[in-house]
Structures are given as structure tokens and as C-alpha cells.
Design a protein that fits this description.
Largest interface: A-C, 19 and 23 residues
CATH architecture of chain C: Up-down Bundle
Oligomer: heterotrimer
Number of domains of chain C: 1
Largest sheet of chain C: none
Structural class of chain C: mainly alpha
Distance between the termini of chain C: 14 Å
Helix content of chain C: over 70%
Shape of chain C: elongated
Chains: A alpha+beta (about 575), B alpha/beta (about 100), C mainly alpha (about 120)
Chain lengths: ~575, ~100, ~120
């Protein structure tokens, strides 16, 4: 059966090359071999044998060990070289008896001997055996080539997948000046992902994800996660809504047992405060620039994709982060990095590397160098994912990263709308993304979404916090105070059982743009607005850029009634 | 890595113990322990006394066991953890899903 | 003609001849002729080589004759050729003329035996 394989491959009989300088020897062999049904090629010396081999490509070669003009050994070597990858058995014909000479034949590349006088039976048996081996070899080669082809396809597919992945995952702001990161270019194949996006009102969302498993299956979950992250951040959704949505998505698409350890952080550059959700990752490290100390932020939650939406815990940790402080987030790859002795790098070494940095700007590179030096020559796991984010002053980013979807010039131009939210809704619904979405339907307003979001957000937060909840903004004077304020806000909101906030939007278009009028009313008791406006400009930064900012962004701003309603006008021109 | 399992006399309790590294190579065997059992135990005990190491695929396997055992209604305990194993379970906050000793 | 009566089975192995006859069938005669012609040529060359003290040729031709004689079933001839071959390898020409004589004589016996078998 296998012989057929060889024969049909050449579409003819199996060819056997015989090289012997003695005519009677040649005759005997020719007879035996052709009686076997093979085609015989004869040569009377080494040189002839080689050229005949190259021309006819026989499947098996019988060589006299000692011949004039290129002896057997030399011929064998040349033939084997010419055969290359293929297995062409070479059998030496010999009357040599001593072991050394016989061994020399094999060393020269010969596969076996045939002693004189030739035995028909032995020759037949050996030919069969070697042709079988040769056929097996061809089969293996064919399989190997098949596998190699498949492999190339797979690698190509992975390249395409990675390109798609990069486009989805890297549409953010990881290249911001306050961010440093270490992420393997093969990160998609170790399940690690780093996302960073600017919020429309300033500030930043960061997310580090570490999917269980490796390779494409691990990477596939990252795509919907990245899409949700960027889309919702861009629309003005908060960290709580985003992380809940991501968890819900992952829970629905990942099989049981597959999950994503993650840490998401909301950076507020204005208030110098961070809010952290962390599940399943090692502690994050917050480096305080002034005291040169570190605090640890533990992961309090289960990883993403485990809990059903009802049981998912969105509780955040809120911390002060002064300007110049740095937050380090990393996956377990770095603390589990091994050196050649099998020891783990661990978190202590990382903290030491930070301590040894001469200047804060060198913190990151020190850690990087420390890990690289530690790992030395040992196998790179390509699992090192490390992120450093520095707290900076207030960012004024005008939506460079927003995807401005251009639906052409069609859309509502002259309209008005009222949207009122009662206590039940105010407790756990953030209306800002929706409000922004509606306003953004006006063609031509989209380039200004950052400013408009800021305006609506500030007015709403004032209406809710001071109007409905009755919180006193004076506590917000320090970062610690802000945290206290935030805690109180959370508490009061949970207890809220009455009250409302009402949005009123009116838009009139003009030849070169339009006017947007935004009015917010709340159920609070108002305040002495004459005084406040005068004081507004002197407010400390911790009470928010707040109203002075709104004032600077709008064309007019006035309080109505007892002060529980505020109206601003925003005049805009086509870009 | 070796896995052993035995049921209590009443068949009410199934204990699975893992010796050595609890990682991806344990996948099939671990599943077989609880899937190929005749009774439906009410309580599962995972004994990590001789487990030297736990990786994320092991965490996944524990989640699969919990899912098989009834998800939120499951009673699965993880016992005899050494310091390293305990640390991994703590970072993952698995005490929110399992009883860990 | 009844020449020297020889016992062919002591000169050439009968089993070998039987096998060769089976392999070559009607071509057996041609094989014998081929061998005998080739052998005679090599013996001539050996004679000249010994006279010229050309050890390389002695070694090569003795080796070749040894091989082909083995294949035709010769019993003593290959051994004699082997001895002459060793002389060539060791480059020692002592006793080569005598050895050559023996080879010539043994060859004549082989020739007779083979011709008998071929007829």
C-alpha cells in the first residue's frame, strides 16, 4: 500500500540506482531488482552514480563501497546532500569484513550493508524495509508541511484579530502626559488590557483588566469591555454605571469559570480625589509625593463577570490624591514574575524600587528596571502589566477624543423639552448622559459637547446636592472635607423620599448657529442669590469650579424666584 | 498533581482534595470528581491541605464546581489552605462565594 | 576433452550457482562469460602492477576480483585475492609474485568449474 504511495507519486515504477565497478556484480543485482518489479539504473563509478541520481531521482541507492573515481563513501555523502530533506536510503555493497570499515560506511551516511555474495532473500527484504521507511518519511513530511501551512494561517488570523483589537482597545488616551504604562505588545494574548479615556467634563477614567486564561479566548472578552468603557465615558456616564454595565456584559458572555480581574478609577483633577472600584487584582499602590509614603488600595470585590447584576457590588473607595501623587495599578504578572531561581518578584521589591527612586519621575522606570533585572535571563512571561497615573491640575480637554458622529445637517433645530425627576429616580439614576444625548442631537452642537456637559453637570449637581439634599457646600473646602461631603451625599441620597429636579431645555437655531437655554429647577428652598453670585468668584477650588466656571462658559446666567431655579444661555456658532 | 475524592457514608458530603499544583492540568480530573458521582451531595468540601499553588484557572474550576452545586444556593467550603493559597483566595475575595477555612 | 578432473563443488559453491541460475535463468551463461572476461582483464592488470610495484592498482584490482569472485560462488579465489589486497594496503610487495601464481592457477579451476555449470 505504501509502495503504491511512492510509486504513484512519481507516476511510475520505483527506481533503484545500482553503482558497482564490476560488470558481473551489476548484472546479478540488476536481475534481482528488476525481478522485484523495480526499475534499475546502473552506474559503474561514483561520478556516474551522482549524476544519474540527480537526473533520475531514484527512491533507493545501492553503492559499492570501493570504486574508482569518487569512492563509495564520498558518493554517499554527495547523494545524501543532494537528497536534502527527503529520505533516500543508501545501502553499501561490500566485501569488507572488519567492523571499522563497516562503521565507516555508516558514518558516511550509509543506512545499511549488503555483503557479497549477494543473497536474493536478504536483498529483497532490505529493499522492502527501506522503501517502507522512506514512504513513512514522505508521509510525515507531507503532514509536517500541512501543519506548517495551518500554522501560518493561524498566525495570520491572529495578526488580523490583534489589529481589530488594537483599534477597539486603543482609541483612548493612554498617551496622555500624566500616564506611564508597561504593557506587552502581546498583551492581547495574555488577557491583559489597559483602557484610559477622558471624561467630557474633564477628569479621566482608567481601567486595567486581567482576563483569566490566555490567547484569543482571553482577549475576546476585552472587546465588548473596551467598547462599553469608551462609549459610556464619552457620553458622560459615571464609574458606577460603567463598571456595573461591564460586569453585566461579561457575566452574560463569559462562560462560568472565566472572569476578568479589574480595577477602574475615576480621576477628578479638579477636586484631587479618586474613586476606585477594584475586584480580584492585587493591591494598588498610591504614592504620596509629599511624605514619600505609600498607601495600599485593596480590591474589595469579586472579579468582573462573576456576580449577576442584582448581586453586583458597586461600592467605591474614595481617596484624596494630591497633585504630584501617583497611583500604581498592576496585574499579578508583575509580583509573580520569576527569576532563574524560581523566586517571585513580589510587592516588597516593587515598593523598595519606588523608595530608591531619586525623583518621583523615576518611580516608574525604577520599578521597570527592577523587574527586568530581577527576571534576568529567565523566560519572559510577557505578563507584566503596570500603570502609573499622576494626579495633575485641572484638565481642560475639549473632547479631542470624542467620536463626533456626523449625521450630516439633519436634526432638531428649534425645540424645547422638560424632564422632571422625582426622588425615586434621583436616588439611583444619573440623568446627565441622557440629557446630553438629547441636546447633542442638534447638528452643529457636537463639537461643544464637553462644555455643554460641564454646564449641565454643574447645574444638576448644585440642584440635587444643595437644592434637594440640602447639603452645605462649605465642608468641601479641603480634599478630606470633600470625601466627607461625598459620604454625606451618598447617605442623604439613599434616604431621599421626596423632592424633584426639573430640566428645561430650549433651543433656537440661527443662520450661523444657535442659542441653547438651560434652566434647572429644584424642590429646595433656594438661597440669597444676589450674594452668592458676588461671592462666586472667590470660592475656593474645593467647592468646585462650579458656578464661576459655568458663568465663564455661558453667555448669561441668572437665578430665578427664591433661588431654586437657575437659567443659563449658551450662544454658539457653527464650527 | 493528584486529585482524590471521597463521599461521606450518607453520600451527603463530597470531599475533593488536591495534591501539588492546582492549575489548568487538573481541569478534567477535577470535573470528573463531581460530575461522575452517583449521589447528589448537599455539601462540597475542597481540601487544599497538600496544594502548593493555585492559579486563575483553578479559581475558574472552583467557580464551575459552585455553579454545578447550585450557584448561589451551593454549599462549598475550601479548607486547610496554606498561607500562599489563602492569600490568592483573599485577593480574589472568594470568601464572598465560598466558606474558607 | 577430459582435462584436469576437478571436483567443482570444492572450487565453486553449488548453492550460489543454483541461486544465480534461478535469478538469471537463461542469462546465466552471459553472466559467466561476463565474469570470466572481467576477471581475465583484472588478472592481466595485476601482473603488470606487480611488475611495476604499483600498490594502489594491486589493492584496487585485487579487491574488485575478490568481490566478483565471491558473487560467483568461488571458494578459495576470494581468499587469495584478499591476501594480495592486503599486500597492497600494507604496501608490502614481498611474496606477491608467488601469490599471483596461486591466483592464476585457482582462477583456471574456477573457469573450468563455471563453464561446466554453464553448459
Amino acid at each position: 500500500m505504501n509502495m503504491q504511495l511512492l510509486a504513484t507519486q512519481q507516476d511510475q515504477k520505483i527506481k533503484v540506482l545500482v553503482a558497482d565497478d564490476n560488470e558481473s556484480d551489476r548484472m546479478i543485482l540488476s536481475s534481482i531488482i528488476s525481478k522485484q518489479g523495480y526499475e534499475v539504473l546502473v552506474a559503474s563509478n561514483g561520478k556516474e552514480a551522482l549524476s544519474l541520481f540527480e537526473r533520475e531521482r531514484p527512491q533507493i541507492v545501492l553503492l559499492d563501497a570501493i570504486m574508482p573515481e569518487m569512492d563509495g563513501m564520498e558518493t554517499a555523502r554527495s547523494i545524501k546532500r543532494s537528497a536534502g530533506d527527503d529520505f533516500i536510503p543508501v545501502l553499501f555493497l561490500t566485501s569488507l569484513q572488519d567492523a571499522n570499515s563497516l562503521a565507516e560506511c555508516l558514518d558516511a551516511g550509509g543506512d545499511d550493508f549488503l555483503s557479497k555474495p549477494y543473497s536474493q532473500i536478504i536483498l529483497k527484504a532490505k529493499l522492502n524495509a527501506f522503501l517502507r521507511m522512506s514512504s513513512m518519511h514522505s508521509l510525515m513530511q507531507a503532514q509536517r508541511d500541512e501543519i506548517s501551512k495551518h500554522n501560518k494561517h493561524l498566525i495570520h488570523e491572529q495578526k488580523v484579530a490583534k489589529a481589530v483589537f488594537d483599534n477597539v482597545a486603543h482609541s483612548g488616551c493612554l498617551n496622555s502626559p500624566n500616564i506611564k504604562f508597561m504593557l506587552s505588545p502581546l498583551a492581547m494574548f495574555n488577557g491583559d488590557v489597559l483602557l484610559a479615556a477622558v471624561k467630557p467634563s474633564g477628569g479621566m477614567h482608567i481601567l486595567l483588566g486581567d482576563f483569566t486564561g490566555h490567547g484569543l479566548p482571553a482577549a475576546i472578552g476585552a472587546m465588548p469591555m473596551a467598547e462599553i468603557f469608551y462609549f459610556m465615558t464619552n457620553k458622560g456616564f459615571g464609574i458606577t454605571d460603567i463598571i456595573a454595565e461591564i460586569n453585566m456584559k461579561l457575566k452574560s458572555i463569559l462562560p462560568v469559570g472565566v472572569f476578568c480581574c479589574g480595577c477602574m478609577v475615576d480621576f477628578n483633577f479638579d477636586k484631587q480625589v479618586i474613586r476606585v472600584w477594584s475586584g480580584g487584582l492585587p493591591d494598588s499602590i498610591l504614592y504620596h509625593s509629599n511624605s514619600k509614603t505609600v498607601s495600599r488600595i485593596e480590591s474589595k470585590h469579586l472579579a468582573l463577570g462573576i456576580r449577576s447584576p442584582d448581586d453586583f457590588n458597586t461600592e467605591l473607595q474614595v481617596l484624596e490624591m494630591a497633585k504630584g501623587d501617583r497611583l500604581f495599578i498592576f496585574s499579578d504578572g508583575i509580583s509573580e514574575a520569576l527569576n532563574s531561581n524560581g523566586e517571585m518578584f513580589g510587592e516588597e521589591r516593587m515598593i523598595n524600587a519606588m523608595r530608591e527612586a531619586e525623583v518621583d519621575d523615576k518611580l516608574f522606570s525604577n520599578v521597570q528596571d527592577s523587574v527586568t533585572a530581577f527576571m534576568g535571563d529567565s523566560e519572559r512571561d510577557d505578563d507584566i502589566t503596570l500603570l502609573e497615573v499622576k494626579m495633575v491640575g485641572d484638565f481642560e480637554l475639549l473632547n479631542e477624543h470624542t467620536n463626533i458622529s456626523n449625521a450630516g445637517q439633519k436634526g432638531p433645530k428649534d425645540w424645547s423639552m422638560q424632564y422632571e425627576l422625582g426622588a425615586n429616580t434621583l436616588r439611583d439614576f444619573n440623568p446627565l448622559p441622557l440629557m446630553l444625548q438629547i441636546v447633542m442631537e442638534v447638528p452643529g452642537l457636537r463639537p461643544y459637547s464637553g462644555q455643554i456637559y460641564t454646564i449641565i453637570a454643574e447645574l444638576f449637581s448644585n440642584a440635587l446636592e444643595h437644592g434637594v439634599l440640602g447639603l452645605d457646600s462649605n465642608i468641601k473646602d479641603t480634599a478630606a472635607g470633600f470625601i466627607e461631603y461625598y459620604d454625606e451625599r451618598t447617605r442623604e441620597l439613599e434616604l431621599l423620599d421626596s423632592g424633584f429636579v426639573r430640566f428645561n431645555f430650549t433651543h433656537r437655531s440661527s443662520t450661523d448657529g444657535g442659542v441653547l437655554i438651560v434652566r434647572l429647577e429644584d424642590s429646595g428652598s433656594g438661597f440669597d442669590h444676589d450674594d452668592k453670585l458676588k461671592l462666586g468668584l472667590q470660592r475656593s477650588r474645593y467647592s468646585g469650579r462650579g458656578l464661576p466656571l459655568v458663568q465663564s462658559l455661558t453667555d448669561s446666567m441668572k437665578y430665578l424666584g427664591v433661588g431654586n431655579a437657575v437659567e443659563v444661555t449658551y450662544v454658539w456658532q457653527y464650527d | 498533581m493528584t486529585i482524590e475524592s471521597f463521599a461521606s457514608q450518607s453520600g451527603n458530603e463530597l470531599t475533593i482534595s488536591i495534591e501539588g499544583r492546582f492549575d489548568f492540568s487538573a481541569h478534567q480530573e477535577f470535573r470528573d470528581c463531581y460530575e461522575r458521582v452517583n449521589a447528589e451531595p448537599a455539601v462540597y468540601i475542597v481540601d487544599l491541605n497538600r496544594t502548593t499553588y493555585l492559579d486563575s484557572s483553578a479559581l475558574g474550576m472552583l467557580l464551575l464546581l459552585r455553579d454545578h452545586a447550585g450557584g448561589d444556593n451551593a454549599e462549598v467550603s475550601i479548607v486547610n489552605c496554606n498561607r500562599d493559597v489563602k492569600k490568592i483566595l483573599t485577593i480574589s475575595n472568594f470568601e464572598q462565594l465560598f466558606s474558607i477555612q | 576433452m577430459c582435462g584436469n578432473m576437478i571436483d567443482t563443488s570444492e572450487v565453486v559453491k553449488t548453492e550460489t550457482i543454483a541461486e544465480l541460475k534461478e535469478i538469471l535463468a537463461e542469462d546465466f551463461g552471459i553472466l559467466v562469460t561476463t565474469y570470466l572476461e572481467d576477471a581475465q582483464l583484472r588478472i592481466k592488470k595485476l601482473q603488470l602492477a606487480i611488475a611495476a610495484a604499483d600498490v594502489a592498482v594491486i589493492k584496487a584490482e585485487a579487491h574488485s576480483l575478490k568481490g566478483s569472485s565471491l558473487n560467483l560462488g568461488a571458494i578459495s579465489l576470494p581468499e587469495l585475492c584478499s591476501q594480495l589486497e592486503n599486500c597492497g594496503i600494507n604496501e608490502s610487495l614481498e611474496g606477491t609474485p608467488a601469490l599471483f601464481s596461486k591466483i592464476q592457477n585457482e582462477f583456471l579451476r574456477v573457469e573450468t568449474a563455471l563453464n561446466l555449470y554453464a553448459s
